[in-house]
Amino acid sequence: MSEVDKLWELQTVLSALNEREKQMAVKPEGFAAIDREYQSANDEMSRLQEQLDGLGRERRRVDGELSDQQETLRKYQGQLMQVKNQQQYAAAWKEIDATRKHVKDLEESVLRNMTEADGLQQQLDGRRGGHGELESRYNVAHDEWQHSLGDLKKEAEELRKRAEALEATLPPRLRNEFQRILKQRNGVAVARVDNNTCSACRTRIRPALAQQLKRGDLAFCEGCHRILYMERPSS
Ligand SMILES: [Zn+2]
Predict the structure, then answer these.
(1) What would the pLDDT profile of 133-143 be if each residue is shown by its tens digit?
(2) What is the rounded distance in angstroms from the CA atom of residue 81 to the CA atom of residue 99?
C-alpha cells in the first residue's frame, strides 16, 4: 500500500470513528431528563453549601469582634471603680453605654446569622434527603444508556485500533504532518479529488498536480492545503 493510500484509509477510519463518537455523545431523551434533574439538584446543593460557608465565615468574624467588645466593656467597668470625680464617672459611663450598644448590635447580628443558617441548613437537609433516591435513578438511567451503546462502543474501539495500526506504519514525519492538518482542518486531513476538484474546498486541481496524484505522489490542495487523494486504477 502506498503512503497516500494509507493516509486515505486512515482518514476514512478516523471519519468513521468521529461519527461513532458523535452518536455516543448524544444523550437519549429518557436520560437527558434525569441528567438535567440530577445536575440541577447538585448545583442547588452546592449553592446552599456555599451560602452556609459564607455565613459561617461571617459568624466567626462577628464572634471575634464580639469578644473584643466584651473585653473592652469589662475594661471600662473596671475603670468605673477607680474614678476620682463626677466628670470621670460620666465619661466612663458614656464609653460603657456606647460599647454595650455595640455588643447588642453584634449579638443581634449573630442571631440573624444563626436564623438564616438554620433555614439554609433545613433546605440543604431536605435536598439531601431525596438525593440518594435521585442519584440511584440517575445511575440506573446512565447505565442503561451506556449499555445501549454497546455495539457503537465496540465499533469505535475497533476503529481506534485500526487507526493506531495504520498510523504505526507511517513514517513519523508524515504522521505528524497528517496530525497537524487534521487538527487545523476540522478532523479532515485528506480530501478526495472528484472531477479534478478538491472535495473538501472545491478548488480545481491543476493538470500538473493531477499528474502527480495519478503517479501516487503526495500532493496538497492549493486551496485548503489538505493532502489530496485520487482513486487510481489498481495495478
Ligand atoms: Zn481543498
Answers:
(1) 999 999 999 99
(2) 17
Rounded Cα gap, residues 154 and 93, in angstroms? 84
Instruction: Identify the pLDDT of residue 234.
Output: 64
C-alpha 7 – ligand 1 centre gap (Å): 16
What's the mean per-residue pLDDT of the chain?
94
Q: Distance of CA 72 to CAs 60, 63, 79, 97, 107, Å?
A: 19, 14, 11, 12, 15
**Predicted TM-score of the model (pTM):** 0.61
* Distances, alpha carbon 137 to alpha carbons 38, 40, 133, in Å: 9, 14, 6
Helix (H/G/I), strand (E/B), else coil: 204: strand
- pLDDT at residue 31 in the model: 93
Q: Where in the chain is the domain with CATH 1.10.287?
A: 19-152
Neighbours of 82 (CB within 10 A): 8
Strand partners, 192: 229
CATH no., domain 19-152: 1.10.287
| H or E, element range at 191 | strand 190-194
Give backbone dihedrals phi and psi of 71, rounded to 5 degrees, phi first: -65, -45
Whether the predicted pLDDT of 150 surpasses 60: yes
Q: Which amino acid is at 229?
A: Y
What's the 165 CA to ligand 1 centre distance in angstroms?
Answer: 27
**Residues flanking ion ligand 1, Cβ below 5 Å:** 198, 200-201, 203, 221, 223-224
